Amino acid sequence: MARSRFAPDRGLSFRMGMTMVVLALLYVVLIGAISYGTGAIWLGVLIGLGVLWGQWYFSDKLALSGMGAREVSAAEEPALHAMIDRLCALADMPKPRVAVSDTDLPNAFAAGRSPERAVVCVTRGIQRRLDERELEAVLSHELSHVAHRDVLVMTVASVVGVLAGFLTKMLLWSGLGNNRGGNNNAAIMVLIVTVVAAVVYGVSFVLTRLLSRYRELAADRAGAILTGQPSALASALTKISGEMAQIPRKDLRAAEPYNAFFFVPALTGKIDIASLFASHPPLEKRLAQLSRISVELGRE
């Protein structure tokens, strides 16, 4: 993780390392599948590296654009900048860029490929609903994602799933492989590569979900310890989770692709098939952890 005063988390570091190793292997398999499907190794490598670079380099811009957010100066948002200034000084870390989204969806997220190039974004909805202590607790949570570098890992990890989905659609729509023999051979080739892409997508999806749930608990813990106010974070979690039911479904559906990066997931009310596919741990588990931290800090 980055050098800061945020509490280190060896479990998070181990999970990030293992996730990256497994996804790197899947990435190699996927590049091979693209090369096989197109009949050109250079094309598979070019597509794979191009998607990886684009996702890595433009991740913050893509996230801000998707949420309709814009960067704001200290003159535009003095209170918000002052909070982040205090937290960055407390954590001894570089100050990220600050952005605001005009949506009423109460949420926050961090994005960026490094602590020096990170951005922390809050919505107007969360600003209206939380008091100063609660918002500062949420910002501490988001800054811990930047300090732990799990924002970068989640960004890179999502590339495999994006590329696998792209490959599957490309094969189904264009019928690649028709130039490599008879129609039967071409159909078999397309089927095999599509199955490989689908399996890679499924594995990468599960891995990123597992990492996403753990990193949220790690950020809750590190953020609460840094500020010394786990009750403020618990209050923010409870308040925002309750307010989600009041958000129009169309707004929740539009925000769902960014759930893995949100402070609280934007849910449309549907129940997940299994907790394995949830991007965040249950609210009860997050609150129980914060309660334990509060007791530990009280003893100290």
TrEMBL record:
Organism: Jiangella alkaliphila
Membrane spanning residue stretches: 12-34, 40-58, 151-174, 186-207
Protein name (Swiss-Prot/TrEMBL): Protease HtpX homolog
Active site: E142
Family annotation (InterPro entries): HtpX_protease, Pept_M48_protease_HtpX, Peptidase_M48
GO biological process: proteolysis
Mode of membrane association: Multi-pass membrane protein
Main location: membrane
Subcellular location: Cell membrane
Domain of life: Bacteria
Source organism phylogeny: Bacteria, Bacillati, Actinomycetota, Actinomycetes, Jiangellales
Key words of the record: Cell membrane, Hydrolase, Membrane, Metal-binding, Metalloprotease, Protease, Stress response, Transmembrane, Transmembrane helix, Zinc
Cofactor binding note: Binds 1 zinc ion per subunit.
